[in-house]
Specification:
This protein is about 35% helix and about 20% strand. The chain contains 6 helices and 7 strands. It is elongated, with a radius of gyration of 21 Å.
């Protein structure tokens, strides 16, 4: 049963999109629904992007030359665009919205990544982004704490040593809750890992 808001063809929505090349890098966009594929659990929207909220330099780095899913059959689009031809984000959007090949730049988005307003989109984006950053901080600890790396430049002998470095790095942004560090750096047991296989 669907528990989130549904939208109609022609409606303007805000969405979070990513490429198959960089699936963990999200772009906040606004678009018009071009087509809909209804599903019992998770409808999909094919949208025509009319606004992007990122700086053009970020788009050039992580979206141009990337691939996105274009239609409900899983066909993809590669953004084979020359980065130097875009000076602003609006230049980029104009090309994919009104250019000769605009249909090639339609993109399919799961309904769970869609919302009506920009404030709601910002809140949702920040939650996901915080999760991804925390996951990367945990991965840095896992990689820099390995025995084989003990002579490496960024080696941390103990969890406490990494925690102190992390507190210094985060400065005023460091969470006040001491359990945050334990939760962030918790090493799952073998049993916990086996549950996810």
């Amino acid at each position: 049963m669907i528990r989130h808001k549904l939208f109609s063809k022609g409606e303007s929505i805000h969405a979070l999109i990513s490429t198959t090349t960089h699936p963990n890098i999200l772009f906040a966009v606004r678009g018009v629904i071009y087509d809909i594929k209804f599903d019992e659990y998770n409808p999909q929207y094919q949208i025509k992007i009319d606004k992007m909220y990122d700086e053009v330099s970020f788009i050039k780095r992580y979206l141009v030359k990337g691939r996105t899913i274009r239609d409900f059959d899983g066909n993809d689009t590669r953004y084979k665009l020359v980065r130097s031809q875009f000076k602003t984000t609006d230049d980029f959007v104009e090309t994919i919205y009104n250019g000769d090949n605009w249909e090639k730049y339609l993109i399919v988005v799961d309904s769970v990544y869609c919302c009506k307003g920009h404030p709601e989109q910002i809140e949702f984006f920040n939650k996901i982004q915080t999760f991804l950053i925390e996951r990367n901080l945990k991965e840095i600890y896992d990689m820099s704490n390995r025995n084989m790396y003990r002579k490496g430049e960024f080696y941390y002998r103990t969890k406490g040593e990494y925690e102190m470095a992390l507190k210094k790095f985060l400065g005023d942004r460091a969470p006040k809750d001491k359990k945050w560090y334990d939760n962030l750096l918790a090493i799952p047991s073998v049993r916990e890992l086996d549950k996810h296989v």
